[in-house]
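Posting for a labmate who doesn't have an account.
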Amino acid sequence: MSEQEPGPGSGAKTREQKQKRAWLGTAARVGQIAGHSIFFLVMGVVTLVAVVLGIGGIVSAQEPQLWGTFTQTSQECMKAVPESRCSNFGNWVSDDGSTTLTDVRLDGTVNEGGTARTSYRPGGFNNDEDNNIVHVEWTSSGFIWFPWILVILSVGSCLYYAKKWKRRTRPTGKIGRHAAQS
């Protein structure tokens, strides 16, 4: 028997290899579809939550916002993470002195003197009173713009990956190396 002629049983081996390749291709495709589906499901939930928070923020924008001074009294740091993340706690007094908060958390950082110019919104959706927090100047309106940035990023990533994962070539009926020579 020459080297070019297939021996007995070689056809079965080739058939087994083809079946195994087909099965692995099918399993990989099912895994790919499942992964893509999970991605779009998670991004859909993120988008939905961000829209709800964004609408709540817009509705809450009409609520009164009090400005005042935060004075740090303590700091709690999470040492479990490689870089320590710290939260500042302290007292807050409104500019007119009518409202005082104790042991409130600061959304931001204090200056060298341990104080910061901050805002407090006692009413509305996701309000500061329920969350026991005051905000530095640049984050005081974050409840309005941050959810919409999140919506843009999540929808944008869905559109990007939908286009990227779309089948790039349409079937031409040609097989293997002949498909590229059309």
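Reply:
Got it, the structure tokens are right above this. The helical segments are 10-60, 128-131, 142-165.
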